[in-house]
Amino acid sequence: MKNVTDSFVSLGHWPSAGSFGFNTDILATNPINLSVVLGVLIFFGKGVLNDLLDNRKQRILSTIQNSEELRRGAIEQLERARARLRKVEMEADEYRMNGYSEIEREKVNLINATSDSLKQFEIYKNETLHFEQQRAINQVRQQVFQQALQGALGTLNSCLNSELHFRTISANIGILGSMEEITD
After folding, report:
1. Burial class (CB in 10 A: 0-12, 13-18, 19+), 155
2. CB 117 within 8 Å of CB 110
3. Which helix (H) or strand (E) covers residue 2, if one does?
4. pTM above 0.85, yes or no
5. HSE-up of residue 112 (Cα within 13 Å, Cβ side)
6. Residue 134: its pLDDT value, please?
7. Which residues cross the membrane (predicted)?
């Protein structure tokens, strides 16, 4: 610090005040040069620096505003997407519940229809069995009747002579005649 003070003191004591020359003492001239350059820079560069800083400030503020607008837009889109998601989830739950109830309803209907079909098949089976039993019984009856008739005819043919045959026919004609009188 003493060097700086010495350099100002030495300015007042120049031996040749009227002459111009170079001071080669770097330590004495640098602070003076720096202060002059800084003074000129501050005086003339203050406006340019203020303009640069103001432009930079405006760009930063506009970037922040754009970011805020984008953020608000993103938040609105997010809320719309969430609302749509809730709506879709509710619809999916509704479809799922309706689907489950429809499946259960169809399952019950299918079980009932199958049960009804099985009952109908059981009825058809029983009717078919009864019909086949009756048919078998009728066939057996016809065979027994034919065998009995053949046996009776064989017995009658062997036992009957023409006189017995004539009396049997007359008796049957008499029975038929009396039946005819009753119906008239």
Report:
1. exposed
2. no
3. helix 2-12
4. no
5. 6
6. 93
7. 32-49
Residue for token pair 């997010």: 78
Say if CB 17 and CB 35 are below 8 A apart: no
Give the number of other Cβ atoms within 10 Å of residue 160's Cβ: 14
Other beta carbons within 10 Å of 143: 10
Question: Mind listing the pLDDT tens digit for each residue in 65-84?
Answer: 999 999 999 999 999 999 99
DSSP string, 83-98: HHHHHHHHHHHHHHHH
| pLDDT tens-digit map of 45-59 | 788 878 888 999 999
- In DSSP notation, 90-129 reads HHHHHHHHHHHHHHHHHHHHHHHHHHHHHHHHHHHHHHHH
Residues 6+ apart with CB under 8 A from 32: 7
Q: How far is CA 53 from the centre of its chain?
A: 57
